[in-house]
């Protein structure tokens, strides 16, 4: 017999949910005959691409992994002592496997639905507590994008809150011992908001200068010197100035904290707490400050509140500060942050506890002392009087530096080479005495001497030689959680216990509109922990990073193909940061043309909150453009405003397809109007999943756009980050793409860096690389079509029950749709009740009240199979029937199954069940929930209570208030 053969493993068939047969059924439910007809009915012909996407054919998982390993192997993983904010570290294997490599953690979204996110909320509160304790500050947020942006946020916050005699001061003192990349990011952020930086030696700063409103200092300094900033800060305070300190988190296990020195803000990165360097990121930037600033802190803060039963429950606190509510008046544009990395660092501290963390600090310091003695013995001069982990060796001349570099590189070692023939050596956790010996050998060879290293060993006792005032005496990590999970079984069970409280893509669809929660395939995730990807320092010499360079150049060219643009910068590490970067590029372009007065950004009223918030950060004035009753941009209003501001027009920010889920027919005309009036068009690419292969930003007439690689291109959301928000630009904007203070990015007129690392969150770029390589141009295009089909299928099934707001000319939605729930309000049913009730059915709610209050925005993505879409629709239809019971009086308006949702197991099993509906209806509302129940662990959370009674750290264990117990926990035995 003859059998037909076919490839058994085609990746796109794994990525796209519905089978061919299911697609036929779905298309007939939608009322169309084929996928292509549906696409023709949905996307306006004027913006359709004429040619297929120019990206090579897709690879199988096996072929991709082989090919990618070969590329990665072109990176040379040398031992890195470069430091400068990036240090080798050990991620405990139990954390690597159970968090970093575990979809239960990495596929969750930002905890908008707190009742099914208590696990990561608790992990984040641990992280905040860890940061507060180590920095000695009163409140911390749940992460920022990196150390550089955290420093820039500190500057912006202090500027916005200037006081007393410095109320109108516009200058900010920056120590010349800040990390160079931090200074670069500060430069980028200062100018547009009218701040002038004064860069100098803090010992010579004139704090009586009335033009200064604040200062920022590095601790330890970039060259490794440890300064006591207490008197500087006191002097600054006398002058109504604020001081921020960028502090190395590990050093704070031994050094007096910034809080104890009086700092107003402490910033930094928690990278060296268990997160691989990853060629620059992603890592969690931290931000901690005083209580007085709690209502103006940038980014997300997790706080404790209570649920409907009065039980302790966590949720995001003080959200009214944030961009999604305050828009152009927000304290920052942060949306996606670095949750997964914050969780890892917080868990690293939980696993080690205060005692072992202190040992890590002490061992690092001991090795630095040992190396210092050895190098001095060889006749080398070391310039740092007090150091924690970094030596500053002064070579006699440039020839000697070259000789050391040559020897070091031959031994596969990287140092930092800087200043006047100086060599920086930063020691770290992932080394021991053997590595110290290797370093000594390098210097001995150059000095032509024999080093006696045979007896080198970490001494049983170490002497800290820096001044008494800088020796940390205060306790840290005294809360119960940091003193309870030190064996592997304990930490494993604790992590699992938290993971089990969270709804992620491992449980079911997360249909969050505008968030594109598609599959994050395992094969895409595997490369991020390849040593050649994970263990690279971002400032390693170029000849060691050829693998990364190839990954960047392939990825950039594929993203150019997908967007139709000429150049891409991979530097921004979130969508919002991409917006800021893109707007800064437009700003630089106008400035280069002498149009410095062009500072008006037109933004439609339906835009995401990050758009106006980013525009303000880029120094622009926001002018809102109306939308019509169909949700489209009101072209007449746009035209009028573009003409009114034609002399000041900088740009339009437009999301496409619109946040209302439609392909606006007038987009080409809209872009033309902006161009005719001298502006540029910035396209927010959050909805790029509805474009790839079918249309493109360049095709609709945009000049710049960001892509959320953590949406369209499969980087998982990590429970609220990491993200990557590269920007693509047309040719004449390419020279302005972001540069970097340490690494030459090869752009003539580059703007200052927007992220600390040259290629932002480089180590997760392989995820998008893998997705594109395995889907190929054809697969990517098919994914877009299926995403549109899945959305239209849900629309077809649900529109009888929930009116769908806004559709295109032929009645089709794009890749998402808005379900109108406002009519239920008159029976007392709020959209939030539906969102919470969905949890009882085993679903994560769609996006609530964005972009229209009182609605749900549903985005299923291409990755969901028909069965999953049907279950979701069944749940929504069943909920509609429950609403009907309230509507027709069968259920009480206040005391009903929707108002009390979600229902916990504890509640359902309680002795005193007094609800007017059965326990069964509460927790097993439909058949599927009997076999696949997801139990929320708390009931409805009272957010207002938590904001009134703000608690943002772990409640300390009583026992640790006892000084004796505390000493046992943190003291050196
Ligand atoms: C339309 C839109 N723009 C911008 C953003 C911001 O992107 P990010 O969260 O990556 O900063 C989002 C995030 O959901 C969005 O939906």
TrEMBL record:
Role description: The glycine cleavage system catalyzes the degradation of glycine. The P protein binds the alpha-amino group of glycine through its pyridoxal phosphate cofactor; CO(2) is released and the remaining methylamine moiety is then transferred to the lipoamide cofactor of the H protein.
GO BP, one annotated term: glycine decarboxylation via glycine cleavage system
Keywords associated with the record: Oxidoreductase, Pyridoxal phosphate
Family statement: Belongs to the GcvP family.
EC category: oxidoreductase
NCBIfam families given in the database record: gcvP, PRK04366.1
GO molecular function: glycine binding; glycine dehydrogenase (decarboxylating) activity; pyridoxal phosphate binding
Catalysed conversion reaction: N(6)-[(R)-lipoyl]-L-lysyl-[glycine-cleavage complex H protein] + glycine + H(+) = N(6)-[(R)-S(8)-aminomethyldihydrolipoyl]-L-lysyl-[glycine-cleavage complex H protein] + CO2
Organism of origin: Adhaeribacter soli
The protein's name in its UniProt record: Glycine dehydrogenase (decarboxylating)
Domain named Glycine dehydrogenase C-terminal: residues: 783-903
Cofactor(s) annotated in UniProt: pyridoxal 5'-phosphate
N6-(pyridoxal phosphate)lysine PTM sites in chain numbering: 711
């Amino acid at each position: 017999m003859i059998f037909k053969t076919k490839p058994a493993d085609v990746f796109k068939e794994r990525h796209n949910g519905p089978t061919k047969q299911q697609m036929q059924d779905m298309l007939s439910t939608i009322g169309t005959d084929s996928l292509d007809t549906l696409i023709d009915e949905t996307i306006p012909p004027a913006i359709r691409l004429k040619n297929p996407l120019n990206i090579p054919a897709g690879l199988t998982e096996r072929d991709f992994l082989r090919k990618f390993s070969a590329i990665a192997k072109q990176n040379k993983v040398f031992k890195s002592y470069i430091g400068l904010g990036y240090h080798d570290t050990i991620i405990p294997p139990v954390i690597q496997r159970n968090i970093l490599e575990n979809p239960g953690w990495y596929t969750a979204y930002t905890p908008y639905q707190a009742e099914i996110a208590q696990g990561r909320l608790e992990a984040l509160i641990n992280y905040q507590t860890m940061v507060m304790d180590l920095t000695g500050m009163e409140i911390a947020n749940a992460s920022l994008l990196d150390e550089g942006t955290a420093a820039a946020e500190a500057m912006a916050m202090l500027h916005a809150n200037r006081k007393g005699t410095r109320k109108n001061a516009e200058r900010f003192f920056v120590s010349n011992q800040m990390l160079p990349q931090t200074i670069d990011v500060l430069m980028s952020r200062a100018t547009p908001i009218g701040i002038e930086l004064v860069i100098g030696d803090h010992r010579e700063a004139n704090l009586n200068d009335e033009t200064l409103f604040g200062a920022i200092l590095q601790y330890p300094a970039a060259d490794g010197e440890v300064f006591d900033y207490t008197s500087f800060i006191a002097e600054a305070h006398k002058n109504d100035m604020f001081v921020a300190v960028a502090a190395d988190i590990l050093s704070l296990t031994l050094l007096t904290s910034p809080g104890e020195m009086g700092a107003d803000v402490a910033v930094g990165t928690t990278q060296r707490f268990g997160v691989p360097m990853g060629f620059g990121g992603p890592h969690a930037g931290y931000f901690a400050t005083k209580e007085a600033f709690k209502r103006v802190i940038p980014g997300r803060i997790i706080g404790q509140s209570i649920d409907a039963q009065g039980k302790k429950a966590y949720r995001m606190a003080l959200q009214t500060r944030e961009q999604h509510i305050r828009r152009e008046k927000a304290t920052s544009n942060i949306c996606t942050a670095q949750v997964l990395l914050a969780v890892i660092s917080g868990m690293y501290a939980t696993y080690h506890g205060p005692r072992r963390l202190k040992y890590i600090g002490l061992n690092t310091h001991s090795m630095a002392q040992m190396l210092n003695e050895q190098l001095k013995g060889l006749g080398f001069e070391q310039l740092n009087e007090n150091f924690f982990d970094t030596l500053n060796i002064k070579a006699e001349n440039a020839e000697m530096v070259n000789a050391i570099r040559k020897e070091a590189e031959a031994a596969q070692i990287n140092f930092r080479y800087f200043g006047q023939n100086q060599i920086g050596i930063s020691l770290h956790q992932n080394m021991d005495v053997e590595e110290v010996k290797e370093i000594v050998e390098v210097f001995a060879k150059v000095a032509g001497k024999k080093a006696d290293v045979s007896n080198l060993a970490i001494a049983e006792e170490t002497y800290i030689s820096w001044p008494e005032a800088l020796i940390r005496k205060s306790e840290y990590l005294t809360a119960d959680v940091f003193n309870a999970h030190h064996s592997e079984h304990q930490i494993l069970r604790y992590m699992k216990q938290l993971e089990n409280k969270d709804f992620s893509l491992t449980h079911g669809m997360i249909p969050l509109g505008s968030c594109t929660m598609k599959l994050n395939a395992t094969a895409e995730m595997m490369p991020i922990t390849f040593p050649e990807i994970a263990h690279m320092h971002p400032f390693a010499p170029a000849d060691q990073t050829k693998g990364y360079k190839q990954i960047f150049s392939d990825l950039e060219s594929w993203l150019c193909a997908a967007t139709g643009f000429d150049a891409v910068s991979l530097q921004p590490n979130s969508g919002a940061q991409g917006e800021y970067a893109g707007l800064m590029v437009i700003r630089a372009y106008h400035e280069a043309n002498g149009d410095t007065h062009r500072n008006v950004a037109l933004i439609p009223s339906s835009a995401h909150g990050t758009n106006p918030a980013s525009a303000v950060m880029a120094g622009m004035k926001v002018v809102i453009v109306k939308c019509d009753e169909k949700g489209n941009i009101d072209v007449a209003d746009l035209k009028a405003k573009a003409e009114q501001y034609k002399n000041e027009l900088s740009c339009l920010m437009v999301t496409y397809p619109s946040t209302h889920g439609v392909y606006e027919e007038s987009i080409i005309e809209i872009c033309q109007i902006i161009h005719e009036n001298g502006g540029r068009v910035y396209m927010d690419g959050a909805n790029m999943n509805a474009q790839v292969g079918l249309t493109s930003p360049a095709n609709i007439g945009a000049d710049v756009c960001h892509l959320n690689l953590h949406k369209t291109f499969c980087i998982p959301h990590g429970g609220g980050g990491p993200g990557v928000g590269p920007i693509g630009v047309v040719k004449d904007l390419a020279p302005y793409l972001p540069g970097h203070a340490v690494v030459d990015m090869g752009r003539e007129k580059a703007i200052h860096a927007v992220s600390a690392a040259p290629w932002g969150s480089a180590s997760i770029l392989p995820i998008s690389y893998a997705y594109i390589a395995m889907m190929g141009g054809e697969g990517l295009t098919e994914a877009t079509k299926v995403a549109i089909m899945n959305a239209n299928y849900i629309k077809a099934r649900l529109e009888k029950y929930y009116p769908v707001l806004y559709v295109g000319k032929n009645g089709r939605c794009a890749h998402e749709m808005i379900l109108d729930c406002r009519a239920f309000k008159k029976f007392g049913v709020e959209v939030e009740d539906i969102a919470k009730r969905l949890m009882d059915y085993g679903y994560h709610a769609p996006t609530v009240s964005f972009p229209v209050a009182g609605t749900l925005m549903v985005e299923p993505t291409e990755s969901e199979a028909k069965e999953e879409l049907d279950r979701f629709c069944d749940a929504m239809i069943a909920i509609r029937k429950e609403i009907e019971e309230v509507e027709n009086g069968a259920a009480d308006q206040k005391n009903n199954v929707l108002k009390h949702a979600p229902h916990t197991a504890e509640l359902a099993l309680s002795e005193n069940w007094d609800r007017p509906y059965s326990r069964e209806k509460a927790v097993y509302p439909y058949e599927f929930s009997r076999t696949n129940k997801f139990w929320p662990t708390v009931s409805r959370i009272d957010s207002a209570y938590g904001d009134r009674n703000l608690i943002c750290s772990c409640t300390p264990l009583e026992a640790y208030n006892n000084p004796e117990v505390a000493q046992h926990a943190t003291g050196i035995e």
